[in-house]
Every structure is written in C-alpha cells, then in structure tokens.
C-alpha cells in the first residue's frame, strides 16, 4: 500500500464509487439461455466472471476479455438505450480495423427505467455493465466506471457520441510522454460534422471556462498539430488511469457542468499536462442531454463556475484575477437581467458563497497534490479575455433545445443541486 495520503484518498474516492454499483455480469451462456422477457438479476460487486470468447460473436465482447486491457472505454448512461445503440455500434465498427489494441467497454447505468440493462444483457452480454442502485448523477456514474476499469488508460464517452476510424490509436499516442495525464480529441457536432463542439477546454484569467473552437468550422482545427490545453471535454476525454487515481476522479459536488474542467485543473495541480489531439475525432450530439432554459440548470451553472474559480486558481493568480473576475460577474449579471434570467444566476452565486468551508478544504487538497508532484511545479495555461472569444460565442450557430423528458439524459436536469461534501473525506484526518 502506498503511504502517500494524497494517492490513497484519491484512489479511495474512485473505489467507493465503484463499490456502490452492482455488477451485471451473467455467467457463461446465461444471456443466450434466458427466455425472452427474463433476465438475470444484478450481482453484488465481486470478482469478474470468467467468460468464454468462443460463445459469442460480439467483437466488443472478445476484446472485453483481455486480462490487462490497454484502454477501458467508460460510458455513463441514463435512459439512453437509443443513444447507446449508435455509440456501441460505432466502437465495434471501428475497433475491427485496430486489432492490436486491447480494449474493454464499461457501461454504467445510472438507474435507468428504459430497459438499458436488459438490452445490454441480451445484445452485448460481454460488455461490463454496472448498475447504480439510484440515480446519482454523471460524476458518480463516471467514477464508478473508472473504479471498475482495468485499462492503463481510460476514455470517457457520453452515450450520445460516435467514434471515427483511428480515433483510439491517435488518442492514446500522446501518453508516451509520462507527463501527459489527459488527451482532448477533436469533438465535432454529430448532426453537423463541419462544426466543432470542442477542441479541448480553456479558461480565461477572469475565470470563464471555454470550449475551444465551439461552433467554428472543423477545417480550422483538424489540421493543427498536437498542442497543450487546460483540460479535455468530459464527453470524450482520454485519461491516464494512474493520474485519475492520484487526483480522485470527478468531484460529485458539480453534478454536471465544469466537472471536467475541475478535473483538468486538479491534474495540473498534480503536475500532469493535457494535450489536444486533432487526429482523434469524436462526433457528439451536444443537444441530446440538457435543456439550458431550465432555471435549475442555470442556477447550477452559476454556482459551478464560481466553485471552479475559487477551488482551482492558485493564490498568486487569484490576486491578479480578482478584478477581471468581478468585471465578468457584473457583465454576466447585466446580461441576465436583460434576458430576465437574473434570479437563477443570483441564487447560484449564493450557493457558492455558502460553500466557503468546502472551497478552503479543496484548496488544501490541491496544495498537497502540488507538493507531491513528480513533474515539478504545476502550470496553468490561463489567458486574458479576448474579443475574438466573445465574437465566436455570439456568432455560434443556435443549438436545438434539449429534450425536457428523460430521453438520453445522463441524469435529470431537474435534479437538485448536489450537497456540498468533501471530495476526500479522509483528508480531514490526515496531515502531509
């Protein structure tokens, strides 16, 4: 056992999430023997059942049986069976041309009621399926999948994504550099592949997180070389598993939105880097999950952006960034007043203000991560607010409204804000 408290508590967060999930793994032949309409119940977490590759023709199934896979693909889902069909089919189709890669697929069902688990048992019996006993949100589902994954590298995929030829080799290539903890692929809009969803994430000195390239022509980004970015979009990011265990996975207090940028900051606090790899391309249906008109979601966005700023900016940077951040808040407040959306914004900022004790705790955790870094002092590629960023934001094509029902959501948009609790509960009793 490693005696480094930061490593122990980081891994514990992921292990606890995985321990809370039920493993759906039928014994050999059970999926084929089950009569129509009947399925095997989920089993308690435990050793992975032994499977015979000869009993299935599912190419993903055979790849999921390797003893130590190179990469684990983790897919959280909530009522997204219709989206999983396309996502899993694309993985199976494009893995066929890459026989040298050893891959397992882990699907984490976040208490769906659309028959996702039954469908997985019958159609993809060799995929590792985890079932959360109750709807817990994207962060908890992703952490459970990461905890169950056995690959040295992990790709996190939304259920509304499709992979493209060569995506895996290109996405894993930058990890030859041991300082790379995450890789951001080029994410294109599935319904309009000529348009970029994300080319990695950035953040302004004022504390405004941005999707690089969002809404811009794909031709402006696909010919770029590998370049450093702040973080990778959680819709399709590649991670070094060792790095995730060091920093503790996704922080569940975010629920959704900016949790991937927060993870990118923590990886950088631990000394790792994130790079953008345009040769790895993912298609993402960016409107399939949430309706941004919902006041509860607007409140969460307002709170999470504040948590992101105060949790992660180094103290020296905060001194420089405070005035630009205050200016950003005033501009955002004025914009929401004009659009009659001020109340959710205001309540979200109050939620963040009430979280001061938790913010202080998280800042101590980041200080410890930096102190134990194997790669030197952390580097945060922040940049001043630029007029062209605002121009790109205003010119981006309008997004279609997301479904207000449960179809394809990772968790319901109306879900209450997660309670602010410790990311690493054991840290309160530990000292470096």
Question: Can you put this structure into words, describing what you see?
Answer:
The protein has about 425 residues and is of the alpha/beta class. The protein has a domain at about 5-285: Spore Coat Polysaccharide Biosynthesis Protein SpsA, Chain A (Alpha-Beta Complex). It has 14 helices and 13 strands. Strands 1, 2, 3, 4, 5, 6, 7, 8, 11, 12 and 13 form an eleven-stranded mixed β-sheet that branches. A two-stranded antiparallel ribbon has the order 9-10. α5 (about 115-125) links the parallel β3 and β4 (about 130). The longest helix has 24 residues, at about 315-340. The model is unreliable at about 1-10, about 25-65 and about 400-430 (pLDDT under 50).
Rg over C-alpha atoms, rounded to the nearest angstrom: 21 Å
> What percent strand?
15-25%
- Helix residue percentage: 25-40%
CATH class of the domain at 5-284: Alpha Beta
CATH architecture of the domain at 5-284: Alpha-Beta Complex
Sketch the major β-sheet.
11 strands, mixed
Q: Tally the beta strands.
A: 13
What is the approximate shape?
Answer: globular
Count of helix runs: 14
Mean pLDDT score = 80
Give keywords.
alpha/beta, two-stranded antiparallel sheet, 13 strands, globular, 432 residues, disordered C terminus, 11-stranded mixed beta sheet, Spore Coat Polysaccharide Biosynthesis Protein SpsA, Chain A, disordered N terminus
What is this structure, in a nutshell?
Helix content is 37%, strand content 16%. The protein has 432 residues and is an alpha/beta fold. The protein has a domain at 5-284: Spore Coat Polysaccharide Biosynthesis Protein SpsA, Chain A (Alpha-Beta Complex).
